[in-house]
Amino acid sequence: MTTHRPAPQLHAHDAHGDGDHESIHDHAGHHHSRANGHGHADMLEVEQAFQRIMAHFAPLDAVTLPTLETLGLALADDITSPLNLPPLANSAMDGYAVLHSDIANAGAAPPTLSVIAAVAAGQVATDTVTPGAAIRIMTGAPVPPGADTVVPFEETDETERRRSGTPLDAITIRKSLPLGSNVRPAGEDVAAGALVLPAGTVIRPAEAGVIASLGLAAVRVIRRPVVAVLSTGDELTAVGSALAPGHIYDSNSSSIAAAVTAAGGIPRIIGIARDNLDDLHRCIDAASDADLLVTSAGVSKGDYDMVKDVLEQRGDMNFWSVRMRPAKPLAFGLLQTDSGRPLPLLGLPGNPVSALLAFEMFGRPTVRRMLGRDLLARPTVEGVLTGPIFNSDGRRVYARVEVGRRNGTWFATPTGPQGSNILTSLSRANGLAICPADLPRKDAGQAVKIIMLDWNEEVNL
To answer: Are strands 79-80 and 195-197 parallel, antiparallel or unpaired?
Structure first.
């Protein structure tokens, strides 16, 4: 199998890797001809492959989880409020609860009111505010009966009274305020019985706070999909083990599992399937209860590996060439398991960049669809290239670029050699710049569409 093979010797027209025909020497020195074949006429466009895969997926079943375990998940049900928020009219300021009629002309003739009580947050006043009276009140405390306005401390003579040692049994109001000032009405945020968060809402910290404010300790959400991750090939060695001559470490399991986690799924690394029928069947059986199995390597149409044969024995499989670079070979189908439950399989190419890019284009949206997300694609921007993108064979090219913004314009800088085996070029990228299939190249200074892989504080705004 071919996961993470050294850079192959390619024909001149295919010098960037992932070509239609590769001449490869494996680790044992044997020569194999790998014709991905069938020509461009038999290739699927990216959108065609995407639609065919997406047609097999829907949001998963719901589970009830503590709210703090639901961040990033979508609500399975509408949430309506069992109460008013706030439950009672309360003060938005530290000050004095008064009758508006007593302070309507305070600017011209400041009134002095009797302070009959004080109420703090968490308390409920038992006294009623009547004409000529006031109750000292703290932020968040329920507005006392009778009061309709709150005057902040700074609009009174409280500071002067305290400095002079005058008792706070009276207070002078120095400013007239509109009726209802600094009073938060009951139900101002949410009314009892109102729809607060509709089904499908993705829970962020703000939604977690809203849910908590309703007194709900747990909610029903679409569960996270379990994605089994399987690498294939005799040449692979598990990370952390000693590396034998002619072997390479299995990086695909780590990168794909990390991508599953980033998409919101739960990765389950099955390990490495060796190049024999029994081991391939064993690994597939170990993934039978997952929501999706993702494999890497052995899915090219002309591949000499046995992966395709095993997959075809287990279910209805499709092996496609997709008009994209990197990541031309792709497999998808439904495998039969002992439980009788079909297991969807997404077969990725073996080269590390191809595997991760294919997961980005087809695996990540699949995970998001199972999570109940409506938006499946990454955000895009229009920018300007600072270096060329080459397109040698009429496929859509996804070039790895570093994206930044200067003077209001996005710029995309290629991260170096774009071979499908050069994973570090992807580690330096925060975007993918697209050269359409019908253009032989895009040059520095030309406009380009960019898929943003990362859009966070590290992007130069």
So the answer is: antiparallel
Helix (H) or strand (E) holding 409: strand 409-414
Fold of 9-60+223-370: Molybdenum Cofactor Biosythetic Enzyme; Chain A (3.40.980)
d(Cα 170, Cα 179) in Å, to the nearest integer? Answer: 21
Taking the mean position of all CA atoms in its chain, how far away is CA 69?
15
Query: 389: closest CA among 413, 425, 355, 421?
Result: 413
**Class at the top of the CATH hierarchy for domain 380-452:** mainly beta
Q: Name the nearest CA neighbour of 339 among 286, 390, 268, 391.
A: 286
Q: Tell me, yes or no, if the pTM score tops 0.70.
A: yes
The residues spanned by each domain of the chain are 9-60+223-370, 62-85+189-222, 90-184, 380-452
Tokens of 75: 């609500």
In this structure, are residues 314 and 280 in contact, taking their beta carbons and an 8 Å threshold?
A: no
Tens of pLDDT, residues 180-193: 999 999 999 999 99
Tell the CATH topology of 90-184. Answer: Molybdopterin biosynthesis moeA protein; domain 3 (2.170.190)
Task: Name the stretches of the chain with pLDDT < 70.
Answer: 1-42, 301-306, 458, 460-461
The b-or-e profile of 163-183 (16+ CB within 10 A means b, else e) is eeeeeeeebebeebbeeebbb
